[in-house]
Amino acid sequence: MTVLSLPKSRRRVERLRVRRFRKLVRRAYQKSVFYRDLYDSAGVRPRDIRRIEDLDRLPFVQREDLRRVLERDPASLYTRRVTKRYWTQTTSGSTGVPITIAATRWERRRILLGILRTYRIAGMSFFDRHIVIKDPIDIRSQAFIERFGLLRHRYFSIYDPMPEILAEISVEPRAAILRSMPSDLANLVQTAESNGIRFPLPRLVFSDSETLDKPTRNSIENFFGTPVLDFYANTETGIAAFQTPDSNGRYLIPEDLVILETVTNPLLQDGDTDIVLTGLLNRTTPIIRYRIGDVADGRVCRDQGAPFSNIDGVHGKYLDFLVRTDGSIVSSHAAKQNLTHVPGIEKFQVQQQEIGRVVIRIQRASDWLDSTEVRIRSDFARDFGSDTEINIEFVESLSKETNNYRKFKVVESKVSQELLTSNPCSSEMNSTKNVP
User: Fold this and answer.
1) CA dihedral sign of residues 58, 61, 66, 72
2) CA 197-199-203 angle, 5° bins
3) Which of 8, 58, 362, 363 could form a disulfide bond with 346, CB atoms 3.0-4.6 angstroms apart?
4) Rounded to whole angstroms, how far apart are CA atoms 58 and 43?
């Protein structure tokens, strides 16, 4: 079974995922000092793992566990000696705890093909033209196949002013697919509405990389007149769940690529559960029973005969866009990246309760330097201008509040939420300002 093919039967998918799972555990135990010590402490050996149900015998891994081992001795986590030939990427830091994932080029290619397969299932054609607004780290050069009209992409950086992006989109041929993060799609909608910018509407709108909350979804869908199809993926495991036009709002789980568990957490309410992930494709950085910090609506549902299991919804990284004093918008990811790869920061959170003032809360690490604060202030002054007050607060422990666990946001803006809820776009407004 190739990564791009659709599952032909639940039994075949089950055999494949069991085989991949057993190989993953065996390699992690044999080649990773971190996992071998972890499983020895739990009294578990690879021979004990024969089926998916044996997953319960393995201990959970927390994000902080990976952070600590990578700081102390990265080689003890990886199962191969990672060289420059390997693909590496640091996670987005949306939880305030970034970690570095490594993979062989082949493993990375298989993960990307898995994401591509979900796009196909969601309605993408290989001949569709894409407009993608992304962090520069995720912007790639033109692929060879694009010269033949396949999977054509036009990339824009989240650091580009949104009015300039819209100006370019408005004079280009209609793109079949618009893809970006929810906060940046909301940025696009707000900018187009406030400036009366017209542009050809895409056939499909894809969102990824952060939680698509209800006010943001409503704003985007009302503007474009089409449902937003959300994709739940992460650097650690790749694609984990996705929506299609026919999934009725539920998220489908590609079980040959990832094992998604839902685990009870007494801190959560309304039947919500913790998401625990096991990635089946990356054996260089094993991710096994990983409590990623995201939350699911209810439990995984396995319908008899259906090719995919499914779940009501997922709540990952909540991020809001930020607003300058002149009303223009700063991408939440631009603000987050100012802090993600900075030494001396254990965790962080950016808050905006009012225009003209931004608060940065930082839990410092042992290698914090006074010069780091100067750098942070300079970066935020560059993004917001001199007329925005930048306040830095140092806290002993920056953690998710137990009574509001799922609403913790690394970039939290009361201003953006008020904009989304007080000025919702309507289909009628959209039809007068945009080219169908």
Assistant:
1) negative
2) 140
3) 363
4) 9
For the chain, how many structural domains are there in total? 1
- Say how far apart CA 288 and CA 410 lie, in whole Å: 25
Task: Identify whether 335 is part of a domain.
Answer: yes
The length of the chain is: 436
Kindly state the helix (H) or strand (E) to which residue 411 belongs, with its residue range.
strand 409-413
Task: Check residue 379 and give its pLDDT.
Answer: 93
Token reading at 171: 């004079």
What stretch of H or E contains 422?
A: helix 414-422
> Which residue from 133, 307, 262, 293 is spatially nearest to 207, judged by alpha carbons?
133
- 44 within some domain: no
The predicted-structure confidence for 125-140, as pLDDT tens digits, reads as follows 999 999 999 988 778 8
**pLDDT tens digits, residue range 56-94?**
999 999 988 998 898 889 999 999 999 989 999 887 555
Q: Does 397 map to a domain?
A: yes
Q: Within a domain: residue 199?
A: no
Give the structural domain span for 361.
Answer: 320-421
Q: Distance (Å, rounded) from C-alpha 347 to C-alpha 344?
A: 9
Q: How many CB atoms lie within 10 A of CB 384?
A: 22
**Which of 47, 93, 54 is closest to 348 using CA atoms?**
93
Query: What CATH number does the domain containing 366 carry?
Result: 3.30.300.30
Structure confidence at residue 85 (pLDDT): 92
Most distant CA pair in the chain, distance: 66
What's the distance, Cα to Cα, between the start and end of the chain in Å?
Answer: 40
Which of 73-87, 295-309, 376-390 shows the lowest mean pLDDT across its residues?
Answer: 295-309
